Please model this.
Amino acid sequence: MDKITGKFISAKCKKCGRLHIPPVYICLNCNQTEFGEAELSGRGTVRTYTTIRVPPLGFEGQVPYDIAVIGLEEGINVTGRIVREGETGLSIGARVMFEEWKDGIHWFKLIH
Model:
């Protein structure tokens, strides 16, 4: 899948129910190797972030861009990109909503 819009899908351990961000091969809680899917709300809070101004090769046309660790309402963290709308003020504690999964990256937008 190259792009998924609107639905945040996680892996859910079939034995203990712990949620994981895919790909996952073994449950960190019970060592089980069988997983189902769970649709999450996609709502979360910025735990920490950085703004990339000097990009690695292949990302030169995207600067500046923000990478953040998002604490989802369901209790798991995910790393993702923040959709910039002008010079919106990103800060720790900002509320975000999942927008899409594209090319292996979770994209979030700020919610006001």
In short: The chain has one domain: 3-110. The chain has no helices and nine strands. The two ends are 30 Å apart (CA to CA).
